[in-house]
Amino acid sequence: MAKFAANLTTLFTELPFMERFAAAKAAGFEAVEFLFPYDYAKEDLAAQLQQHGLTQALFNMFPGDWAAGERGMAAIPGREAEFRNNAEQALQYAIALGCKKVHAMAGIVDMNHSIDSHRDTFINNLRWAADLYAEHGIEIQIEPLNDRDAPGYFLAHQRDALELAKATDRDNVKVQFDLYHAQIMDGDLSKLIAEIGSYIGHVQIASVPERHEPSEGELNYPHLFKVLDKHYAGYIGCEYHPRNDTVSGLSWMAQA
Ligand SMILES: O=C(O)C(=O)[C@H](O)CO
Ligand SMILES: [Mg+2]
């Protein structure tokens, strides 16, 4: 049975960020996720979760200068110290929010370094962070992003993420399977979900190609929820941009 988390970065954007927790609860969500919490004190975020009885399903490590195009640095050679600082900062937030999944964004390929050295950097950084996070029972997620939205991103394909997660040799490094990106880059989603199987650590959804509600576009979500049910029991993050207002767009959930 699918259970959904509201992505507060993309849903309820009609409201200021701190008011989105209450709105998610009122709309029937038991869990939330968001991209980056670092503009807010972790105590204030934790208070919102507690006040509204919500679970924090996931958030991301600090990605570097987002406005300048940065998308993390976990795979970028030469930025290991920065990665470690960001991993430690995210861990403090995860502990405060009771959150068991943190996404480590790989980054945009640095053409001054080989692909092999990016791969080695990614694996070494993930091992270091996974060992630190394991003491708190927290998983690290790696997520392939499609190359239309994130040109040059180091990780674009689900099978590459699976291979990298295995190569870390750490039980708490998992694949964040976002069906929107996976359909654009890989397709054959029913088989792909079964293949990634127990390495799926988190799931996100949106329509393809527009990234709106999962009730339109080229994916058959009622079927995909049944497939996911066989391989994944966690929250499914609703990481889409509502076509109109958030609440009226939630009618798809009744059929999920
Ligand atoms: O873009 C996505 O799909 C994500 O989930 C990332 O966390 C942000 O780029
Ligand atoms: Mg995603």
Gyration radius, rounded: 17 Å
Q: Structural class given helices, strands, pairing?
A: alpha/beta
Helix content: 25-40%
How do the strands line up in the largest sheet? Answer: 1-2-3-4-5-6-7-8
Residue-averaged pLDDT, rounded? 98
| H/E element sequence | EHEHEHEHEHEHHEHE
Write the CATH homologous superfamily: Divalent-metal-dependent TIM barrel enzymes
- CATH first level: Alpha Beta
- How is the CATH topology named? TIM Barrel
How many structural domains in the coordinates? 1
Distance between the termini: 9 Å
Strand content: 5-15%
Total strands: 8
Task: Report on the biggest sheet.
Answer: 8 strands, parallel, barrel
Q: Please mark out the parts with pLDDT under 50 across 5 or more consecutive residues, or reply none.
A: none
InterPro entries: HPT_OtnI_isomerases, HyI-like, Sugar_Epim/Isomerase, Xyl_isomerase-like_sf, Xyl_isomerase-like_TIM-brl
GO biological process, one term: glyoxylate metabolic process
Keywords: Isomerase, Pyruvate
Domain Xylose isomerase-like TIM barrel: 21-255
Textual characterization of the structure:
It comes from Ferrimonas lipolytica. Residues 21-255 form the Xylose isomerase-like TIM barrel domain. With 256 residues, this protein is of the alpha/beta class. The protein is built from eight helices and eight strands; from the N terminus they run E-H-E-H-E-H-E-H-E-H-E-H-H-E-H-E. The termini are close together. Bound molecules: the ligand O=C(O)C(=O)[C@H](O)CO and magnesium ion. The ligand O=C(O)C(=O)[C@H](O)CO is lined by residues 35, 60, 103, 143, 145, 178, 181, 204, 239.
